[in-house]
Amino acid sequence: IEAAGESGTVSEISVVYTELLTVDNKRITIPNGTLTNSVIENYSSEDLRRVDLTFNTSYKCDVEKVKSVINKVIADNPMALKNPEPFVRLSAHNDSALTYTVRIWCKNADYWDVNFDVIESVKKAFDENDIKVAEVIEKLLEVGKVTDLAITSASLENVIYDIYTSKVQEGD
């Protein structure tokens, strides 16, 4: 559950307090009066749970190809349920990225495995299919002037290093 700003598995309920055991094995004691006046989210009460993810790609990527690659990753995951059907749609046009919303249903016990497996598998599939992640910088202040750039997140560290070393060489 998640309640009163805490989350964990209920390990004990007494007349005065409720104890939660967190995922990192901490024991949290919450007075029942506090719980009575709180909203309680119960993550384990239902058999099925939905994994909600978002992925960003460059504007240069073909939308249908991105959706197809993500759908294949989901179809290849044996823990992802076919019914209710997975949802993969382009959901936003941001300043430097296209955002895709992904919703996958799974058994409650499989939630975290599906979450992390799909994230890792989408990364691999994007690499294999030459789908680029979003550009993170459109303009960069370089030695007192603004220069238009198209920098992928993979090259950002190199650009920052190059600018730093050029400023050091110039005595800035």
Word description of this protein:
13% of the residues are buried. The protein has 172 residues and is an alpha+beta fold. The protein starts with a strand and ends with a helix. The strands form four sheets. Strands 2-1-6 form a three-stranded antiparallel β-sheet, with no helix packed on it.
SSE blueprint:
Elements (H helix, E strand, L loop, with lengths): L1 E2 L2 E2 L1 E5 L3 E5 L5 E5 H5 L3 E2 L6 E10 L5 H14 L10 E7 L4 E10 L3 H18 L6 E8 L2 E8 H18 L2
Antiparallel strand pairs: 1-2, 1-6, 3-4, 4-5, 7-9, 8-9, 10-11
Helix pairs in contact: 2-3
Largest β-sheet summary:
3 strands, antiparallel
Could you list the spans in which at least 5 consecutive residues all have pLDDT below 50? Answer: 137-146
Name the average pLDDT: 86
Biggest sheet strand line-up: 2-1-6
End-to-end gap:
54 Å
Strand content: 35-45%
Shape: elongated
Helix count, DSSP H or I runs of 4 or more residues: 4
Helix/sheet category: alpha+beta
Query: How many individual β-strands?
Result: 11
Give a brief rundown of this model.
With 172 residues, the chain is α+β, with helices and mostly antiparallel strands. It has helices at 32-36, 63-76, 111-128, 153-170, and strands at 2-3, 6-7, 9-13, 17-21, 27-31, 40-41, 48-57, 87-93, 98-107, 135-142, 145-152.
Features:
172 residues, three-stranded antiparallel sheet
